[in-house]
Amino acid sequence: MASRSELGLERVKQKLEKCFESGDFYHTHQMYRTIYFRFKRQEKYAECKDIMFEGAERLLSKGELNSGADLAKLYLEVLSKGSIQADSEIMKKLAKLHSMMKPSSPERVDFTGECLQYSTVLGDLSDKKAFGHPNMHRLLALNYWAETNFRDAKYHFTRSLDGTSCALMLIEYHLSKGYKSEVDLFIAQTVLQYLCLNNQRTATVAFYVYTRWHPNVDGPPFVLPLLNFIWFLLLAVETRANLAIFTVLCERYKSFLARDPMYNVYLDKIGQLFFGKAVAPSERHPAGGLLGNMISQLMTELDEEVGLGVYSEDVD
Questions:
Q1: Hey, which family's this protein in (predicted)?
Q2: What are the two backbone dihedrals, phi and then psi, of residue 277, each rounded to the nearest 5 degrees?
């Protein structure tokens, strides 16, 4: 026999359905909140989470943005208070609710931060210093990309492990918003940011996908010096090259790295992470070994064949 509490909950659910079917979304919202507080008092978070997700999704789908966002927040509270693991399915549900919210609304901004906080605390993060699970960042990035909000998409992609999608987004971003002369800047900054976050693998994937599929890029080796620098840098990181090689690279491409003052900031961090210390580009050391010889030879060939000085930012 059902308890009085269970019978009362069933009556609330029946009333909720009638309100929703009749288009009375105000009282639908209130019924969902009643259910939330009943389960909360009993600490039945596992039973409550699916109902809160259902309510948020239904109201958002009807254009009830404030009420839907409120239930989405309660859904997150249930997940957090119940210490429910941030697995891939739950993160997909959070991303779905995120995609249904009005892009510029304060509710969505708050929800984004709360999703990342939840995935940080209850996700299977290996990097405990990170803010937000890489998969949560990836799903948010895909939402922003679909909205052609390339700036926010890039921010979240660089904190994900999806270098392929990041590169394809950057190609679309450059072709639709950038100047022809910026084709190398779009990927260079992203690769350096990935490396600063100690994400070598994703940096490499993003670089090779971008340079393979961008219609205005050929190589390697590349006509554009900055792309050659990034290529050599990734090789140096992958082969655990010594500090001397890194120093020579920075010195050799110093004039092209001056295009963005942030590059030296990134390279200082990359020097610490992968080459043992921060190094100023002006500090010269002999570069030896197989990689050093290969880089030296390629640099000479590039000087002879395409010239490091032929590229101008003023080209349209």
A1: Belongs to the GET4 family.
A2: -170, 165
The CATH number assigned to the domain with range 161-316 reads: 1.25.40.10
Under CATH, which architecture does the 1-147 domain have?
Alpha Horseshoe (1.25)
Average pLDDT over residues 254-278: 91
Cα(118)–Cα(122) distance, integer angstroms? 6
Q: Are 95 and 137 in contact, with CB atoms under 8 Å apart?
A: no
**What is the DSSP track for 142-210?**
HHHHHTT-HHHHHHHHTTSS-HHHHHHHHHHHHHHHS-GGGHHHHHHHHHHHHHHTT-HHHHHHHHHHH
Q: Which residues contact 31 (CB under 8 A, 6 or more apart)?
A: 12, 13, 15, 16, 19
Amino acid at the residue 3: S
| Cα pseudo-dihedral 51, 54, 57, 58, rounded to 10 | -110
40/32 Cα distance (integer angstroms): 12
Q: Return the pLDDT at 316.
A: 32
Delimit the domains of the chain by residue range. 1-147, 161-316
